[in-house]
């Protein structure tokens, strides 16, 4: 009686089973996978956040499919502080980036149509697409000391059913950024093949060399840039995301998006009313997150220098990829490390790395815990 959109009977993976067994036994696990900033020991502007949520306007219901103008103008000001011009009329609010993907898959694709996503990258895409009866086809990112899009493979992946190309900038977990040349080439390719671009920019404030990488602006093809409070303000519990629409046919696109958004009206009034103040105080925790990510990356590189382990080049985000000797499979590395050293990391195949052996760790991890975990990795 249930749909077959998802694999409802998928078995729990061996790593998750071992984690549960260890925790049940009372083991103290060094978790190097933490990606929730509210659990990573950062100091938040507590009073400002709580005050933002106490606004009495939150008691009123004002159903606006695009989102409250005050909240969209706050997003506009947030971009302006990054020297990016965005008109509030080109912004649509969602409850999360995941919901933005769901809206866009509904907007752009019919059941059975295809969306191209990068590999390696975040594993949620297949679930989001499956729930919309959309197929995912992957195109590879290649590593030769830095990461880059394999445009020949991307071009070959396009079929008559392809409707959009997803880019993640910076990518998760590789931390790679699209170069200006890659942005132009992607724009030209998508325009020539009449495809939309979905640019996931949730980690854009965490580019290690500064700036705010984005595809917002004059584009030759319809382009959707996604972001939200989860990463930009380190507030995943607030459930507010947004998309900025660039390129041709924006008015018609927004008319169609409003039909979808009006069906759900999922963004809560309290977070929309609080958005101006939440975004205004975001820089405090954001700077702390960025400082930790950069210092943890430097510490990782130092700790693993002149060893059998290599930290792959990264340009931003919250993750680091470590290439490990192929003396074990990735699954063996993660299981043995947890079983023998009580250290939890993620295997590269969680993110669809094409080859072995890679481990992924979070740069949000408390620094002394990260270094202790890496020490144990090297003695495994």
Outline of the structure:
This protein has 380 residues and is of the alpha/beta class.
Could you please describe the fold and organization of this structure?
By secondary structure, the chain is of the alpha/beta class. The chain has two domains: 14-43 and 283-379, Alpha-Beta Complex (Aspartate Aminotransferase, domain 1); 46-280, Aspartate Aminotransferase, domain 2. 39% of the residues lie in helices and 17% in strands. The protein is built from 13 helices and 14 strands. The strands form three sheets. It has an eight-stranded mixed sheet with strand order 2-9-8-7-6-3-4-5, sandwiched between helices. A four-stranded antiparallel sheet has the order 10-11-14-13, with helices on one face. The N and C termini lie far apart (48 Å).
Low-confidence stretches: none
CATH C-level category of the largest domain = Alpha Beta
Radius of gyration: 21 Å
* Average residue pLDDT: 96
Number of strand elements: 14
Major sheet size, sense and barrel closure: 8 strands, mixed
From the 3D structure, determine the CATH topology of the largest domain.
Answer: Aspartate Aminotransferase, domain 2
Distance between the termini: 48 Å
Helix content: 25-40%
Structural class by SSE content: alpha/beta
What fraction of residues sit in β-strands?
15-25%
Q: What would you give as the CATH superfamily of the largest domain?
A: Type I PLP-dependent aspartate aminotransferase-like (Major domain)
Strand order of the largest sheet: 2-9-8-7-6-3-4-5
């Amino acid at each position: 009686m249930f749909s077959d959109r998802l694999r409802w009977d998928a078995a729990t993976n061996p790593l998750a089973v071992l984690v549960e067994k260890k925790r049940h036994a009372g083991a103290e696990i060094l978790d190097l996978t933490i990606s929730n900033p509210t659990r990573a020991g950062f100091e938040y502007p507590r009073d400002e956040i709580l005050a933002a949520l106490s606004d009495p306007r939150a008691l009123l219901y004002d159903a606006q499919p695009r989102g409250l103008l005050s909240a969209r103008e706050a997003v506009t000001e947030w971009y302006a502080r990054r020297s990016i011009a965005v008109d509030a009329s080109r912004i649509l609010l969602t409850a999360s980036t995941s919901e933005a993907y769901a809206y866009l898959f509904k907007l752009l694709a019919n059941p059975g149509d295809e969306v191209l996503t990068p590999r390696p990258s975040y594993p949620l895409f297949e679930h989001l697409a499956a729930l919309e009866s959309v197929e995912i086809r992957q195109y590879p990112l290649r590593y030769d000391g830095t990461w880059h899009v394999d445009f020949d493979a991307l071009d070959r992946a396009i079929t008559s059913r392809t409707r959009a190309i997803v880019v993640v900038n910076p990518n998760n977990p590789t931390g790679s950024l699209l170069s200006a040349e890659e942005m132009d080439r992607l724009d030209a390719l998508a325009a020539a093949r009449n495809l939309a671009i979905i640019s996931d920019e949730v980690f854009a404030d965490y580019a290690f060399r500064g700036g705010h990488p984005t595809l917002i602006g004059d584009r030759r093809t319809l382009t959707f840039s996604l972001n939200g409070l989860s990463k930009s303000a380190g507030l995943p519990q607030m459930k507010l995301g947004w998309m900025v629409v660039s390129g041709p046919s924006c008015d018609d696109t927004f008319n169609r998006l409003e039909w979808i958004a009006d069906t759900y009206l999922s963004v809560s009034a309290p977070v929309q009313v609080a958005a101006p103040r939440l975004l205004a105080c975001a820089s405090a925790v954001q700077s702390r997150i960025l400082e930790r990510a950069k210092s943890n990356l430097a510490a990782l590189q130092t700790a693993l220098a002149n060893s059998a382990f290599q930290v792959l080049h990264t340009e931003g985000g919250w993750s680091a990829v470590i290439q490990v000797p192929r003396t074990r499979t990735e699954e063996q590395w993660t299981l043995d490390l947890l079983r023998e050293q009580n250290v939890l990391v993620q295997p590269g195949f969680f993110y669809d790395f094409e080859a072995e052996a890679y481990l992924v760790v979070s740069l949000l991890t408390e620094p002394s815990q990260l270094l202790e975990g890496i020490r144990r990795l090297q003695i495994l």
